[in-house]
Amino acid sequence: MKKLNVFVVASAVLLSLVAGVALASPHGESKEEKKAILLVAFGSSEESAQISFENIDKSVKKAYPGIPVKWAYTSHIIRKKLAGQGKQLDSTAVALAKMVDEGFTHVAVQSLHTIAGAEYHDLRRVVSSFKSMGDFESIILGYPMLATQKDMVRAVDAVLGTIPKERKANEAVVLMGHGTHHPANAFYAALMFQLQLKDPNVYLGTVEGYPDLDTILTLLKQNQIKKAYLMPFMSVAGDHAKNDMAGDEDDSWKSIITKAGIECVPVLKGTAEFNQFVDIWVDHLGGPLSHFDNSK
């Protein structure tokens, strides 16, 4: 991970130098203010997942009309896969270097991650490198979806507001988060605690962190659940949702929970397909933009 972080920062420095655009004249006079928004997601190569990104893009442009909106994907694997399909998506460093070249002076970088985990902190390092080099007069990073207790409250309301209406009180809702080795993984357990204060049959597990599926399955059995709605707690209903959650393989959540005698109903919609979640990201973007004059 350390080698990757060094590489990311070094790449950002090199790309910035290649861009070669100074923000001030030889006499130290600042250029005219030119604002932009950079939306940064992990990314997805699933065609069906693009509806989530389109919804975010539309919401951001509606909230902040007149400010150009750019995109970047943090996943090298996703970018490479998309390139093979003829679709070019930039890394954060490349996107920012291009924005330097285009003469932008004030850039609000908005994370579209769910928590401030490893991906978010890698993004923060790239943004910090551009800030330290002075390529922009101002560059500020916005929070991911879950960053404060206020966000947690809003996320609880968003989850409860997007559960299928036909679901009954004695039926479970099992959310699948990604999970991470990063300490920010604790947000998932904290969110499940707050969800269950309002609805004891809503559970939140993760693919690569805690709570894991074994923990969730134990709780489902203890509460004698007979039917569960499976929903991704990720911005897009991509590979994890289609395969790890709702796939037909023996190790999918659907298969494992079904074998335990619980009927499963997968719901393949990412959080970013719902405005209740998107509004949290959009509001976080207002933080960086509030530091720029006449941001809206």
Short note summarizing the structure:
The protein has helices at 2-19, 50-63, 76-84, 92-101, 118-133, 149-162, 186-198, 213-222, 239-245, 253-259, 275-289; strands at 35-41, 69-73, 106-111, 138-142, 172-177, 202-206, 227-232, 263-266. With 296 residues, it is of the alpha/beta class. Strand 1, helix 2 and strand 2 (69-73) form a beta-alpha-beta unit.
List keywords for this structure.
296 residues; 4-stranded parallel β-sheet; Rossmann fold; alpha/beta; single chain; 11 helices; elongated
Give an account of the 3D structure.
- By secondary structure, the protein is an alpha/beta fold.
- The chain folds into two domains: 2-145 and 275-289, Rossmann fold, CATH 3.40.50.1400; 149-269, Rossmann fold (3-Layer(aba) Sandwich).
- Helices cover 45% and strands 15% of the residues.
- The protein has eleven helices and eight strands.
- The strands form two sheets. Strands 2-1-3-4 form a four-stranded parallel β-sheet, sandwiched between helices. Strands 6-5-7-8 form a four-stranded parallel β-sheet.
- Helix 1 packs parallel to helix 4 (92-101) and helix 1 (2-19) packs parallel to helix 5 (118-133).
- The longest helix is centred in the first third of the chain and has 18 residues, at 2-19.
- The model is unreliable at 13-28 (pLDDT under 50).
Largest β sheet strand count, sense and barrel closure = 4 strands, parallel
Residues in helix, %: 40-55%
Distance separating the two termini: 38 Å
In sequence order, what are the helices and strands, one letter per element?
A: HEHEHHEHEHEHEHEHHEH
**Shape label:** elongated
Q: Roughly how many Å is the radius of gyration?
A: 21 Å
Task: Write down how many β-strands occur, each being a DSSP E stretch of 2 or more residues.
Answer: 8
User: Strand share of the residues?
Assistant: 5-15%
CATH architecture call of the largest domain: 3-Layer(aba) Sandwich
Total helical elements: 11
Derived from helix and strand composition plus strand pairing, the structural class reads: alpha/beta
CATH structural class of the largest domain: Alpha Beta
For this structure, the CATH topology of the largest domain is: Rossmann fold
